[in-house]
Amino acid sequence: MNIRRIAGPLLAVVLALVVGVGIWKSNAKKVETTAAQAKAAATVTVNLVSGSESVPFLTDARVTDILLKQGVRLTVQKSGSREMAQRTDLAQFDAAFPGGVPAAEKIKAVTGAKQMVATFYTPMVIASWKQLLPVLEANGLVKKRANNWFIVDMARLISLMEGGARWKDLKGNSVFSVSKSILVSTTDVRKSNSAAQYLALTSWITNDGNVVTTDEEIEKVTPRLIPLFLKQGYQENTSSGPFENYLAMGMGAVPLVLIYESQYFEAALRNSAINPDMVLLYPEPTVYSKRIVVPFNAKGDKFAQILNGDAELQKIAAEYGMRSSNPSLLTNALAAKNLPPVPQLNDVVEAPTFEVLEKMITRIEAQLK
Q1: Which one-letter DSSP state was computed for residue 323?
Q2: Are the C-beta atoms of 242 and 185 separated by less than 8 Å?
Q3: Reported pTM
Q4: Rounded average pLDDT over 186-211
């Protein structure tokens, strides 16, 4: 047998295979590179201005990953929702994500945006302490239904606050008989959406159960509401401030504080910051803070549709305490931590328009200076 005769063709076959594999790998790499380039080209950067309460969710690594997989790279700038509606530089963004319909409608109007996309929502609640429940209940202010506590007489609570009542004035108060004024702690109404929501709620109650719409109604209710803000003293600019004080400083400093329900549940679900002495009180009526995307262009619209429609994003939002069109998501998230389900809220009122709120806030601001 002639080995050379066999080795020659064999070597040629091996060389052909090596060259073929090299060509295949090269082509595969080109295809992979082309696909990556196509994906990168299809990915758009969306510049978003957002209310502070939504930033932790928007910057969650899982949210970032889901958005990237669907072609959106998100950059977020934080801004107060009321401040956002008055900014003159909104043209640098692709979308706005304020908390509250009045701010969203104002942004839509001033930018000429074609639509608003509702995503998540959360009711305004009052965080308090279980030690206070017996005295609040004895004075007809709160009542328990199933697993949740409700402020059943918001009108009486407002009357006590505007009249200068102190905790020691409540009958049967042996647990918190102090000279501290009965007040609901809020953010600065001049800068923060959550305080504006409180103004919306209290103005509805003091306007005989009607949304404030006219200048006459503004003049009627605003003088009654000024003490609710003026007597608080220093107020934080963002919704995280009062809630952090509540978590850290206890009942003596913060007996009643207005927060978003989502703040409380986020702390319970993600940070284990809620202790057994803490409790939520649901005002009757209450107002919803709705998270609205106002897209300014096609990129902003793409982000809005993903945020509104992606099931996985809805689940992550529930971990941040947010309600959505699927109520079971938040219920399931709470159940996983052995927390009771949220109540269904039927007594919910609408906020005044942005312009009406601004007129009331301007009158309050004049007294705060």
Answers
A1: B
A2: yes
A3: 0.85
A4: 93
